[in-house]
Amino acid sequence: xxxxxxxxxxxxxxxxxxxxxxxxxxxxxxxxxxxxxxxxxxxxxxxxxxxxxxxxxxxxxxxxxxxxxxxxxxxxxxxxxxxxxxxxxxxxxxxxxxxxxxxxxxxxxxxxxxxxxxxxxxxxxxxxxxxxxxxxxxxxxxxxxxxxxxxxxxxxxxxxxxxxxxxxxxxxxxxxxxxxxxxxxxxxxxxxxx
Length: 194
Prior knowledge:
It is built from eight helices and no strands. The protein is mainly alpha-helical and 194 residues long.
């Protein structure tokens, strides 16, 4: 709404942003083919675009959150290059995080969710104590498992509300509210009745 009131063509800026991001993604793909691998292979990115999108959603479209999500997913990706003790350390970290979250939920009154997370944390502690080695197949899918778990948990706290979109769309319509509608409309709290 603020950009539109200053005369900025919002739709043109959106299209320009999509075109520039597509061009940058194409340059990144070209770099990957010519410089990194030297040859094009099918499935060369190995799902990293999905992980990048998950980092964006996890970070709630904010730079610091996206950086922390990229660091988490980068760590999970780097585990493929490491030994089994690194995976076992990730199990302990995940179990501690689940235990803390489960205890917090349990104390806040969410008994079922807290109990489920505490049981899951206990199973992960048991897996760490009982296992000397993690299967190579699990090491290969670790980035994707971490991505799906983080997306499932991040979906619970998403702040991308529909009212943000409605606020701009209502101002774009330039028509008065329908009869009987509350004034000011919920999505346009800063407007005053004329």
